[in-house]
Amino acid sequence: MTTLEERLGLAPPADPAGAPVWLLDVDGVINARKPRWSAAPHHGTAHAAGFPYPMRWAPALLDRIRDLHTAGGAQVVWCSTWCAFSNQVERLFRLPPLERAFADQVHGEHADRLKVEAARRVLARGRRLIWTDDEVVPLADSPLHAELTGTGRALLIRPESRAGLNPEHMDTIEAFTASAQSATGSTGTGTADC
Q1: DSSP assigned state of 106
Q2: What does the radius of gyration of the chain's CA atoms come to, in whole angstroms?
Q3: Which of 64, 71, 161, 185 has its CA 20 to 30 A from that of 56?
Q4: Threshold 0.85, pTM exceeds
Q5: Are 122 and 99 in contact (CB under 8 A)?
Q6: What is the pLDDT of residue 184?
Q7: Is residue 128 a contact partner of residue 119, using CB atoms and an 8 Å limit?
Q8: Structural contact between residues 116 and 131, judged by C-beta atoms closer than 8 angstroms
Q9: pLDDT per residue over 11-21, tens digit each?
């Protein structure tokens, strides 16, 4: 039986001193009905399995995600039902090609399980974790939340679905990445291995 890492052609475990791995969802995180940013949201359409899906996002949010990724502050990895169609959202959001936590077209509980497995894999490989998902990130009083955050190496953000990530969330993410860099003295990235 091949592992997910083997199927995706990922490298062996990365140096734990690397930048945090940010598992990033799309719907309810970037794609939001009422983003809470100062500028008007942008609109566009992404396609998945031959169907068009309207998208609405805050350009300043995407600028901050792109800047953090390209500067090496975080290794952004898609962790979304959009993984199989990541080229569509990358084009629309003007993001560079990003790694994917899984490659298959998945939905529902199967997608939820794959997302949790990806978060656990990041931590098991000694990496710091940022996970933003409006539905699957566990609530603060759950055993899964305690499991993932118990070592102090994980930042979990569950934004309100209709608003997505806001400037305060990004401030928190950027502070987490800065503390990770100062703790390890590293600004480089490796392969996410999630």
Answers
A1: -
A2: 16
A3: 71
A4: yes
A5: no
A6: 58
A7: no
A8: no
A9: 433 443 589 99
